[in-house]
Specification:
Elements (H helix, E strand, L loop, with lengths): L3 H66 L3 E10 L3 E12 L2 E13 L16 E3 L2 H5 L6 E3 L9 E2 L25 E13 H7 L6 E6 L13 E2 L5 E2 L4 E2 L6 E3 L9 H14 L4 H12 L11 E10 H4 L8 E10 L3
Antiparallel strand pairs: 1-2, 2-3, 4-5, 6-11, 7-13, 7-14, 8-12, 8-13, 9-10
Helix pairs in contact: 1-4, 4-5
Length: about 325
């Protein structure tokens, strides 16, 4: 028979063990919660740093590419909606026509870490407006004039020398006669052949200041963009003019600088190659096209296919009857005041 004091000691021992076990369990829970919270904080801090880096890379990638692919178009700001390891960025751009700014585009870009399968997500988009021109239809054009979807202004078009457009090449110089003389005009001038930068500087009419130079990056002109072909019904189809949203590259002035040089273009292409972003393959194609058999491209070897100019409607009439003008296409048109 167990003595009473032995029962009390045994019960006391049981209570001590229970209390110790409870403390151990509580301590384990606290440690687990602390580790979990610290781990989550570490994950979110790390994810925040990763998405911040990816956001910066996306922003500079888009700005760098826009500087060679968007004639007379400049960034005006951006908005960045960030999620977990991903985000969506809105870029806003504008044009300048003789010191008058014109809002131009809103571009949305989804970005995320390459190994993360999800994005914050903004989907869809816009494209240029196409409006049937009765005169173009009457003259047998197989394409329409494009208009900006945000402000209804005309989008410029560009015609490559030697490419057969079946004679359907826009020349809007006659439209200048119908405008008030002080209207401010943007216009894309496509040349009849390629010229050096130095030649272009000397052959343009006095008082004309180009804001952008179109560079020849089309060494291989064997694709369907440059040659007529027969469609599935046996009808002949001809190339379409290039647009600012597809395959037009060059260099120009900036809002903070009125100087433009071929070296700027080469430097931007090299910078794009170093970034290794989504435009990398296009940068490399341009770079290889420019350098040809040389070690690297030379600024003096760049060939210019056309220019974008701004001025008054009356001033741009000086391009009439210039032998080097193959096409002249209106862009934005605004009032002086």
């Amino acid at each position: 028979m167990t003595a009473p004091w032995e029962e009390a000691e045994e019960q006391n021992l049981v209570n001590i063990l229970k209390k110790t076990k409870r403390k151990s369990m509580i301590r384990s829970i606290i440690i687990s919660l602390t580790v979990s919270i610290l781990t989550l904080i570490g994950i979110f801090v790390g994810a925040s740093q990763l998405v911040d880096r990816r956001s910066s890379e996306t922003l500079f990638s888009e700005w760098n590419f826009m500087m060679i692919s968007s004639p007379n178009e400049y960034e005006s700001g951006y908005k960045d909606n960030r999620g977990f390891l991903s985000g969506v960025m809105e870029l806003n751009t504008y044009k300048i026509v003789e010191n008058v700014p014109i809002p131009w585009h809103n571009k949305w870009i989804n970005y995320n870490e390459w190994w993360f399968p999800f994005t914050t997500g903004t989907y869809g988009g816009t494209s240029n407006l196409t409006v049937e021109d009765s005169n173009m239809k009457q003259e047998g054009y197989e394409y329409y004039r494009n208009y900006n979807p945000y402000n209804g202004q005309r989008e410029m078009a560009y015609y490559i020398p030697e490419v057969d457009y079946n004679g359907k090449i826009l020349n809007d110089l006659s439209l200048l006669d119908r405008m008030e003389e002080e209207k401010l005009v943007e216009m894309a001038i496509s040349f009849n052949t390629s010229y050096s930068f130095a030649e272009v500087k000397t052959m343009l009419p006095a008082g004309i200041s180009p804001v952008w130079y179109w560079v020849d990056t089309y060494a291989d002109r064997s694709g369907f963009n440059f040659k007529p072909y027969r469609d599935g019904n046996g009808n002949m189809s001809y190339p379409l003019p290039m647009t600012s949203s597809f395959g037009v590259y060059g260099f120009g002035i900036r809002p903070d600088s009125d100087q433009a040089a071929p070296e700027d273009f080469i430097d931007l292409v090299k910078s794009g190659i170093e970034r290794k972003d989504k435009y990398n393959s296009e940068y490399r194609r341009i770079y290889n096209d420019l350098k040809k058999d040389e070690t690297e491209p030379e600024a003096a070897d760049l060939r210019i296919l056309g220019v974008v100019v701004t001025g008054t409607a009356d001033g741009l009439k000086s391009f009439k009857n210039q032998s080097y003008v193959r096409a002249a296409v209106l862009g934005a048109v605004v009032d002086k005041y």
